[in-house]
Amino acid sequence: MLIVKKMPILQGFPDFETVKNLSGNAAEDVNFSPLFYDIETTGLGRNSSFLYLIGAVCYESGSWQLYQWLAPDFREEKALLEFFSEFIKNFSCTIQYNGDSFDQPYLQARYKFYELPDPFEGISSFDLYKVLRPLKGFLKLPGLKQEQMEAFLGEQKRIYCNGGECIKIYKKYMAHQEQTDLDTVMGHNMEDLLGLGDVFKMTGYLALRDGAFTVRGTDFDGDNLILQITPHYSLPASFSNGTEEFYITGQDNLVSLLVKPLNGRIRQYYSDYKSYDYLPGEDMAVPKSISKFMEKGLKKSATRETCYTWFPCTEEFLENEEKQKQYLIHTLEYLFWKLK
After folding, report:
1. How far is CA 173 from CA 51, 70, 72, in A?
2. How distant is the alpha carbon of residue 227 from its chain centre?
């Protein structure tokens, strides 16, 4: 018989509306019902190991609830799969870490092994590993493992074993049925699930790239242009990074971008560089719809680095929040690429 555990998550998880918006489901008419989940297996091979634990977090009656289902021995794997298949029918989207590469295909292989239908059909996937990959360089992360993401956030609350040790402890539990071993195995899975909630908040950094901010203020002293913005989503941890041209810092609800102008002018970068040609003699890019009339020797295909024009830091720009935001949207997108 499966071992089932349920408990409320009282703090730490992002609120439901934040999850809805940052996962790309902001439209009011979207029927959004997310399921965070994580699995524990006796190995990586889909046909040489088996599933023994599934943990999930879902939103019920105004709060997040954590579920865990554990198979006490190998013979209960099919029952575990069947139970999860019935449970997942209530959700429109799964949220996991590296789930597209491991968790979901592993489960699908086990369902196929038992000749059970695939329960993931019609359910979208939001893989945090894939989504957050652009943050590695931008936040100067040492790697993209979930534990490394949690460490960046300062969320080093783990007290249970790692995944490899967990397999040994689970096998020990099967042999001796000791409560301490069961608590350790389920505790590790619970920490993975709670970590998913923490790591999900990092999608707030990506929202900057998508224009989810308000211009807060601008200052230009002749040498440096400083633009301050308020993100629509509070940043879960402070960061700083830069290039020779830019320096960006962020903490909580404030992000500052310092730009170093050249002779009072700054570059406006454009992301659709394939639509532009770069003119070395003019040090600027122009749309190909214009450059097609120019001699070939005067132009070459623009790259992300060379797809820009120049404009002066005039009072018109410094007092116009709409122009500042358009400048920032292009510049932040360029920075995410540059700092990759």
Report:
1. 15, 11, 8
2. 25
Two tokens, residue 136: 């590695």
Which long-range contacts link 315-319 to residues 24+ away (Cβ below 8 Å)?
Answer: 318/218, 318/220
- Two tokens, residue 321: 């929040």
By the 8 A CB rule, do 18 and 142 touch?
Answer: no
What span, in angstroms and rounded, lies between the C-alpha atoms of 214 and 207?
12
Listed as ranges, residues in the chain with pLDDT below 50 are none
pLDDT attached to residue 28: 73
Residue 126: which of 32, 209, 194 has the closest Cα?
32
pLDDT of residue 156: 64
Size of the chain, expressed as the number of residues it contains:
340
**Which are the contacts of 262, defined by CB distance < 8 A and separation ≥ 6?**
none
**60-62-65 Cα angle (round to 5):** 40
DSSP 84-133: HHHHGGG-SEEEESSIIIIIHHHHHHHHHHTTPPPTTTT-EEEEHHHHHT
d(CA 271, CA 273) in angstroms, rounded, equals 5
CA distances (Å), 78 to each of 38, 88, 104, 209, in order? 17, 15, 16, 44
* pLDDT tens, residue by residue, 59-107: 999 999 999 999 999 999 999 999 999 999 999 999 999 999 999 999 9
Tokens read off for 183:
């608590």
Per-residue pLDDT, 162? 80
- What is the C-alpha to C-alpha distance for residues 79 and 77, in angstroms, rounded to an integer? 5
Q: pTM, whole model, 2 decimals? A: 0.93
Q: What one-character-per-residue DSSP string does 158-213 give?
A: --S--HHHHHHHHHHHHHH--HHHHHHHHHHHHHHHHHHHHHHTTHHHHHHHTT-E
- Count the neighbouring beta carbons within 10 Å of the beta carbon of residue 126: 21
> Which residues have C-beta within 8 Å of that of residue 235, sequence separation ≥ 6?
204, 205, 250, 251, 252, 253, 255
